[in-house]
Amino acid sequence: MSAGGTRWHVVQTHPHAEQRAETHLQRQGFVTYLPRYLKRRRHARRVETVAAPLFPRYLFVAIDLAAQRWRSIRSTVGVSYLVCNGNDPAALPDAVIAQLRDREESGLVRLPARPPFRPGESVRILDGAFASCLGLYDGMRDGERVTVLLDLLGRKVRLVLDVDSVAAA
After folding, report:
1. The whole model's pTM is what?
2. Topology of the domain covering 122-168
């Protein structure tokens, strides 16, 4: 960003108030960046995909410390505090924001699809008929489902489950 001394800084927001803080900062004339990603959310037996903040409770704001009245950020609606080193706001390298923006597709940051476990690791099944059973992670079927080996009646049985249905044991 570094146009004439403008640097990126980090603002911590109140819980679930990232959008509110961003709106109020923009009304004051600050340039903000709130990176979002697609998050799968389960509620009442429904699974939906929603845009969620990549860094919950944090957003980035571009400030020219010499030209802007940056102290007003501290009292902005939705803002908890401005991350500082001593009395001055801590600046971020421009490359951090540039790398985040490079990974964006249609306004959302693309996250790498990596399996959450390594083959052979012990996992616990969280819901369904086999809830609280322990098994071994076998691999990924697609980006959403995992295979787990369960020891039932002396045999290894392969189950295909939702990624959200298993956790590290």
Report:
1. 0.71
2. SH3 type barrels. (2.30.30)
Q: Give me the torsion for CA of 112, 116, 119, 124, rounded to 10°.
A: -160
What's the rounded Cα separation, in Å, for the pair 158 and 169? Answer: 18
Which residue's entry shows tokens 């819901």?
Answer: 127
The amino acid present at 141, given as its one-letter code, is: R
Q: How far apart are CA 50 and CA 43, in angstroms?
A: 12
Is 143 a residue whose pLDDT tops 70? no
Please tell me the predicted confidence (pLDDT) of residue 116.
73
Helix, strand, coil distribution of the chain in percent, nearest 5? 15, 45, 35
DSSP at 27: H
Report yes or no: 31 and 3 within 8 Å, Cβ to Cβ: no
Assigned CATH topology for domain 6-109: Alpha-Beta Plaits (3.30.70)
